[in-house]
Amino acid sequence: MYIVQIASECAPVIKAGGLGDVVYGLSRAVESRGHTVELILPMYDCMRYDHIWGLHDAYRDLWVPWKGSDIHCSVFCGGAHGQLCFFIQPHSGENYFDRGYYYGAVDDQMRFAFFSKAAMEFLLKANKRPDVMHCHDWQTGLIPVMLYEMYRFHGMESQRIAYTIHNFKHQGIAGADILWATGLNNEPYYFQYEKLRDNFNPFGLNFMKGGIVYANHVNTVSPHHAWEARYSGVSYGLGHTLEMHNYKFGGILNGIDYTTWNPETDSFISEHYSAEAFQNKVKNKKALRERLLFSDDKDKPLIAFIGRLDDQKGVHLVHHATYYALEHGAQFILLGSATESGINRWFWHEKNHLNNNPDCHLELGFNEELAHLIYAAADMVMVPSNYEPCGLTQMIGLRYGAVPIVRGVGGLINTVFDRDYDSYHPPTERNGYVFFQSDFNAIESAMDRAIGLYRYYPEEFEKLATQGMGYDNSW
Ligand code: ADP
């Protein structure tokens, strides 16, 4: 099959979170099964150009119809760790992808509607006719709409679309001007409830809803989250739409790329190790401690949090866990970045407050290389999310022998099985700690159990960690 992935991220070139990991890892995995995979991405000024090989212009004069006129674009082509990528660069005053960041502009809807339109024009004009187009999240939600309503009348009638939702929170809501910009035009038609009209805002058009309504197959990133999306509030108002399109909606668990995430070969860590040579893991802990000027106390477990500092990730519990760990003889390392200014300020305040503590470090920002070393060094990784469509950090933690302590929601339920209480898996298949309530007592009790096992039954703790390493969460 010939498959084209169209997305706003692809790791490690463009990565803000799990979407980037998934687009890259899934492409590799599908290609290794004998399919042809290409990727279409925006050409951001701030992406990691050092991870692209042989970047050259592949299509010089792409004219994209936009707002009743045309925008001149170039399409560049290059290899991102073996994956063939096409990067779309518009030449217009709006500088859609030259902002120094990926997301967070006031005109994000216009930026990604333009990207979607340009991707369709590129496929059309470069005569690319994939069997399957795989679109991701709200940024590409208009692609299924445009394919069905416009491009199938221009020779793209046999293309089929898979649409994957990684996070329901961001849906892309825009006004009627988006129709004019993309050339979809017919306002009364698209404002119908069955089409793109937002389920709550009668004046809004919802990109993600468009993706759900028009794609041939829709999925979210874990079976449990697919259930939650239909029957609890985590689909942010799209539950009824999913119910109406239930026949083509499901949950498929993400994987992680086992070449990128492999403690036996990882070039960012100090010492390679495996479940069989688990004693080498501690050398990474030592290296991280030296780098961050931590005290070197064998009895102290190192607990890590790596992730976006966002409400979704349970920041109030992350904050509480930091102090609880310190009060209970553990060390805490946090690597995260916040886009919301209140949360950002809060964690900068904490960072300054804890600056001289030899058992704690808060690294605020995005640092892929450091993330690898932290997974290798940590004894436990913490994922106390309010909701979590799939979650990759617990899977990476498992792979690196860092025992996950997670809240029992979404994909975390599908991947972490409580050492003491899981009733579906025998003790030899359990791999972490799970708590359910989103309050301090719940997280404290899970942390007590993990820290207690580490301190008083180190052999049992090692058994739990190596058991986790045995899990296959590859694609
Ligand atoms: P998200 O909701 O952000 O997609 P996931 O758990 O699915 O969460 O994926 C998070 C990915 O991003 C993981 O690969 C994690 O290691 C990485 N990550 C998150 N925050 C940072 C950061 N500040 N620095 C480096 N890597 C990060």
Residues in helix, % = 25-40%
What ligands can be seen in this structure?
Answer: adenosine-5'-diphosphate
| Beta fraction | 15-25%
Radius of gyration using CA atoms only: 23 Å
**What does the overall shape look like?**
globular
Write down the overall mean pLDDT: 97
Number of helices: 16
Low-pLDDT regions: none
Structural class: alpha/beta
How far the N terminus sits from the C terminus, by CA atoms, comes to: 18 Å
How many strands in all? 17
Strand adjacency order, main sheet: 3-4-5-2-1-6-7-10-11
Q: How is the biggest beta sheet arranged? A: 9 strands, mixed
Task: Reconstruct the topology from this structure.
Blueprint: E1 2-6, H1 18-32, E2 36-42, E3 52-66, E4 69-80, E5 83-91, H2 108-125, E6 132-136, H3 142-149, E7 160-165, E8 173-174, H4 177-182, H5 187-190, E9 205-206, H6 207-214, E10 217-220, H7 223-231, H8 239-244, E11 249-251, H9 281-292, E12 302-308, H10 315-327, E13 331-337, H11 341-353, E14 360-364, H12 368-377, E15 380-383, H13 393-399, E16 403-407, H14 410-415, E17 433-435, H15 440-456, H16 458-469
Parallel strand pairs: 1-2, 1-6, 2-5, 6-7, 7-10, 10-11, 12-13, 12-15, 13-14, 15-16, 16-17
Antiparallel strand pairs: 3-4, 4-5, 8-9
Adenosine-5'-diphosphate (ADP) binds at residues 17-19, 21, 306-308, 335-337, 366-368, 371, 390-393, 396.
